[in-house]
Amino acid sequence: MQAESAMKVAWLEKLRVFLEMIKFSHTVFALPFAFTGALLAKGGLPSGEQAFWILMAMVGGRTTAMGLNRLIDAEIDAANPRTSSRAIPAGLLGKGTVFVYVLLASLLLFFAAAQLNRLCLYLSPVALAFLVLYSYCKRFTSLAHLVLGLCLGAAPVGAWIAIRGTVDLPVVLLGLAVLFWVAGFDILYALQDLEFDRQRGLHSIPVRLGVTGSLWTARLFSLVMLVLLVGLYMTMHLGSWFLAGLVVVALMLGYEHWLLRGGDLSRLDAAFFTMNGYISVAIFLFTLAEVLLGRSA
């Protein structure tokens, strides 16, 4: 009994380390956009069953993505002083253990997709393929940020498909908005590893354009995101609540870029983690208000 209890404790500790390694709490970046897509597709609240399986698909997909990234980048992480303390390079988790968690998470993704509808199930291996592709992109292209954006942009598209079973123009606009939003803040995040990536021959927009060029590219991507969200607003004939959300998001994006003015990266954590978490939640909350209050006004 003691040995069995010790094994359970060991696996629970490994699970805790794994969740910390993949930054499970950062699911807040993509999950609100998935539910935004579901709200718009439904024109109201999805059923409890739909919401549950969308949540499970998101958890499975993001866990798979981050776990794969940590596995594939283990040697790079070990060589980078900023990431050498991550679980695999530090010896806290073995690659075999991480692979088991990734396998379980991918099975959760497929199972959840199957519970939603057939199209979601058919597209889930495509999503997984792009997750694998992203982890290798930095080895051969500076466009890795856009590939990551494509992976997260699939969240609202997948949720829309889960509700309607089709792909329509409004969710394409929303997915592209998420793509450019993610690519923009990933460029900012990559600034931390600029010198390391240069030395290792890795590819990124900061490596190609430097700090100033990267900051301007991130600003441009944020502007594109806002334009696409305006397109969504017009295409779906949304009302004042959603419009107010766009204004709030524009102000938060402006503040995020103001924090990094002049290439000052000392506030990167506030700009990257705090503001982008607020942005995704704000869009969800204003969309929720739109479908619940705006349509009934």
Q: What does the model show?
A:
- The chain is mainly α and 297 residues long.
- It is built from twelve helices and no strands.
- Helix 6 (118-137) runs antiparallel to helix 7.
Quick structural gist:
Helix content is 78%, strand content 0%. It is an all-alpha fold and 297 residues long.
Number of domains: 1
Number of H- or I-type helical stretches = 12
Largest sheet entry: none
Q: What is the CATH class?
A: Mainly Alpha
Strand-helix topology:
Blueprint: H1 2-21, H2 31-42, H3 48-72, H4 74-79, H5 95-116, H6 118-137, H7 144-164, H8 169-190, H9 194-200, H10 205-235, H11 240-259, H12 268-294
Helix pairs in contact: 2-3, 2-7, 2-12, 3-5, 3-6, 5-6, 6-7, 7-8, 8-10, 9-10, 10-11, 11-12
